[in-house]
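User: Structure tokens for this complex, please. No commentary.
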Amino acid sequence: MIALPIRVGLCAAWLVAVVAGLGVLISYQNAAGVAGETPRQWPATAQLSPDPSRPTLLMFVHPQCPCSRASMEELNRLLAQNGGRVKTHVLFLRPSGLAANWTHTGLRQTAAAIPGVTVHDDVDGVQAKNFGAETSGQVLLYDARGNLLFTGGITEGRGHAGDNAGVTTIVSLLQGQNVSSSQTPVYGCALQDTCEMTSQRRLAWKQ
Amino acid sequence: METVMPKLNDTADSLPARTEELFKGQEQNIDRHTDRLFARLMIVQWVAGVAAALLISPQTWAGATSQLHLHVWAALLLGGAVTSLPVLLAWKQPGKRLTRHTIAVGQMLMSALLIHLTGGRIETHFHVFGSLAILAFYRDWHVLISAAAVVTVDHLLRGMFWPQSVYGVFAAPIWRSFEHAGWVVFEVAFLIIAIRKSRNEMLNVAERQAKLEILKASIEETVAERTAELTREIAERMQVEETLTQSEAQLAKAQHIARLGSWEWDVVNNKVTWSDETRRLYGFTAEDFGLPMDHCLERVHPEDRAKVRLALAEALRTQGPYVCEHRALLPDGTERVLHGLGEVVVDGHGHPVKVIGTTQDITEAERAEAALRRSEEQLRQSQKMEAVGRLAGGVAHDFNNLLTVITGYAAMSLQRMKKDDPFRKDTEEIQTAAERAASLTGQLLAFSRKQVLQPRIVNLNDVVAGMEKMLHRLIGEDIDLSTMFDPELGNIKADPGQIEQVILNLAINARDAMPRGGKLTIQTANVALDQKTRFRNRDLDVGEYIMLAITDTGVGMTEEVKSHIFEPFFTTKSAGRGTGLGLATCYGIISQSDGDIRVYSEVNCGTTLKIYLPRVDALGTTNADDPDADVMPNGKESLLIVEDEAAVRRLAVSVLRNCGYEVQEARDAMEALALIQTQPPFDLVITDVIMPKMSGKNLYDRIKVFAPRVKVLFMSGYTDDALAHHGVLEPELSFLEKPFSPARLARKVREVIDGPKIRTPVSTKTNGHIPAVKREPTRTAARFALG
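Assistant:
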């Protein structure tokens, strides 16, 4: 038999610990990934070319990233309403030396199933490096002349779908409206290895 | 029920308390059960959370490298943390309020964790509502409040700091948090209603159960009281039964002692039942119990059966008492005399339904009564015999003296007469008449049992065989005489001459009963009288007997005649043919010999007389041959004759002097003693027995004192027990029965003088030797003519 004060104290300690644990979890949920240095102009070294008739949207995705499922859902939702106004390419990281099925995940299939989306393999993340994308789920929007309109994530947390500033900004841009900010934090896995990441300059999403 | 209701009223005060107790108990059971349910559920949820994390976000990547996703760690560690305390409390503190509230909080936290791990999927939010529903299992609305509070706080905090995580919008007004909480409250409200209903039902159930328990307790108490009463009643009943059993045993014992049994005849069903004593009295078996009356009457003696039936029928007809004395004949041949009494029981219509009665064994009483009757009869007979005997004795004494003189002088006269003497025939007639008179006095003495018997060991086969020739002559040619001797026949101790007289008397009677001829059978046999046969031979003791049966095929006798045949002077013969002393004489002789005579006779069928004499184991003695009756031996010895009757004395003196003896005479004992003391010793003293002043026996005793070597010969026609004990002569004495002939006197004198110098008393019971007393051969035959 456990004495009541002990039980109460035990319960309080337990509650604090659990709440703290949830706090840590929430904190992690809101921890944004590294935001790369995105070129203001469509890089000339890029394999892809911008659509001259309309804006081009690029999304860099790690095929194994569980948090990017939410980003893919948001992309689907975005394109469902504005598909005709933008040319969309989704580039899946494909490290060389790995089997092709490493990239053929459910996430890639989801992306391929979205109307108006062109899926590409980004071998060794070359294109991501060209565009300065370092976190899975990062979206870039260029206008028909190759000028950068938007860079950032289209979720409000890790793996959490729902209204977010990224989608709202993109939709406004596509509708020709002015936006207050053209950059949002990205929530997802790193597209590059850690060692590679340390050699690059990290950008805070607030920057 | 009357006893139950008061008890219910008595326990009414305890009903709410018991209801509360049962309700709390049920509540506690539900809490414990739900605690255990949630303990298992939370463990499952934990495992499911880990599995979901592994499935949804197993790893987090950085290029081609990966590591375990934080969600997996969160599911494992945080989920474990959330699960741990509720499970611990459910395990260690089931049923406690804090336990279920901790479970409620933990369950809601688990919902938050799962929602988080699934990326805030709306579907996962249903876990909250499901959890609330399961928490309602506690039927404790406080638990729901705790859970709802957690949800509300969570939504408030999220709405305030991260609304997009719950509302999917960047910024949400506070009311949205309350809206979300409102839905939770909505469910909780209905759950609370349901809980209240459920608790009311639980309370009702508890109350019903409490009532049932109280009722049950009351019934059990009543049952216990009744059981105690029954136990007491059973104990009392057993005591009563034991007392009854003892009473029945005492009754049975009393019945057995009194030889009085009870019985009951169910007239309607014709079944007879009885007590053990009745069963024993009639010799019934257990199988006979309850059989019809006719079957039971088979145990009644055939001669009495009709009488019993008539008595029963009369009792039923008149509804009066049943009284019937009857005999029972048992299977082993035992006969009992029973006295039955009974009463008729009638039903409401006056019809006899049963007869209840008793049966008493009065066999012994009957025997005693019969013995008493016989004793009285014997007493009367004895008194009569005594009177007759006294008369006969008195007559015989004087008469025999006269006959002695008559026969003596007649014999002496005949000796002196020539054969052609004209007075010889007249003298012979005188002698014959005197001998017949002597026989008559002998019979008088015999039936009055005053005759002097000189018993010895004899065998009846020899006695009858020796008489066969004479019997043939006696009964004539028309009657066939046959004998049936038992070759193993034992001996008897009796006076053979008297036995011969008995046989001849009975043979003469048989002859007279068969005037047209017939068959006379004389049979001998060894018989043993036991208790059963003794019943029919009441005058005899149990023991070994020799039976002599004389059977004729004559006219037989009626019961009336049979009852008088042994009385003296009773005869059915025509006048002049019988004196009425024959069978009386036989009876006297046999009775005097410790025997008995039985008569079996039916009119026109014949008669059997059976004589029973005690068997003795001693060997028999041969009867001395009777020498020539006419021989008168001589002698020169000195004799003293003591006789108060002058004629007899003169006759004896004359006879003996003629034989050569030196004879002196005395008129009485005193004179004889004087002569003995003054004269030289006599060789023989011949003395009468009954004399005035001093009897012959006293004289003998005096002589034995003064002259012990002198021999003594008694002579008498009637001793009056002076010499004989109950008529049986003492063995050491010599005796000459009056009347006697001169020749017999001479032979007896010679025999005594020539005998042993001093007679030594010999016990007849040891060697059976009895001094032979010779009789005159013609005397017995002469008596027959008188029978």
